[in-house]
């Protein structure tokens, strides 16, 4: 009988321990994660707001996301895809430049790659200014001559 009581006591202590550790773990601070989406379109990667800015690119002008050919998901930049996707990126071939693959973070409209490249870095829908520096990185997303 004494032995049974001891076992009960051990269990009680064990459950108390479980309970208290759980209560403590719930008090730990939760890191802020911005789950970014624009007009129902999810933006993946390390987003910091709901206009497609990310931890790598977050100036006033950094308001586009690119849909990656490999996974058909929008990411704010190449680095976001590199750090979060579990696969190598694929670029859009020229034959598919009529695919909607650019998202304006200001108005949420989707542009085709051709529309984007002809836009003069201004959203044709809401006239938001895009970062002209992005053109230096076209080769990371789109098939180019060289
Ligand atoms: Zn991908
Ligand atoms: Zn990024
Ligand atoms: Zn726009």
From TrEMBL:
<dbReference type="InterPro" id="IPR008913">
    <property type="entry name" value="Znf_CHY"/>
</dbReference>
<dbReference type="InterPro" id="IPR037274">
    <property type="entry name" value="Znf_CHY_sf"/>
</dbReference>
<dbReference type="InterPro" id="IPR052604">
    <property type="entry name" value="Mito_Tim_assembly_helper"/>
</dbReference>
<dbReference type="Pfam" id="PF05495">
    <property type="entry name" value="zf-CHY"/>
</dbReference>
<keyword id="KW-0732">Signal</keyword>
<feature type="signal peptide">
    <location>
        <begin position="1"/>
        <end position="25"/>
    </location>
</feature>
<keyword id="KW-0862">Zinc</keyword>
<dbReference type="GO" id="GO:0045041">
    <property type="term" value="P:protein import into mitochondrial intermembrane space"/>
</dbReference>
<keyword id="KW-0479">Metal-binding</keyword>
<feature type="domain" description="CHY-type">
    <location>
        <begin position="47"/>
        <end position="128"/>
    </location>
</feature>
<dbReference type="GO" id="GO:0008270">
    <property type="term" value="F:zinc ion binding"/>
</dbReference>
<keyword id="KW-0863">Zinc-finger</keyword>
<protein>
    <submittedName>
        <fullName>Uncharacterized protein, contains Zn-finger domain of CHY type</fullName>
    </submittedName>
</protein>
């Amino acid at each position: 009988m004494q032995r049974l009581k001891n076992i009960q006591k051990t269990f009680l202590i064990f459950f108390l321990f479980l309970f208290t550790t759980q209560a403590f773990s719930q008090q730990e601070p939760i890191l802020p994660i911005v789950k970014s989406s624009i007009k129902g379109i999810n933006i993946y990667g390390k987003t910091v707001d709901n206009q497609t800015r990310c931890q790598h690119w977050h100036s006033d002008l950094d308001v586009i996301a690119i849909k990656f050919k490999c996974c058909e998901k929008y990411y704010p930049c190449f680095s976001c895809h590199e750090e979060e996707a579990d696969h190598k990126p694929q670029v859009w071939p020229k034959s598919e430049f009529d695919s909607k693959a650019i998202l304006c973070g200001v108005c949420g409209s989707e542009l085709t790659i051709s529309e984007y490249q002809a836009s003069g870095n201004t959203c044709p829908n809401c006239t938001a200014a895009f970062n002209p520096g992005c053109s230096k990185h076209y080769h990371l997303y789109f098939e180019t001559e060289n």
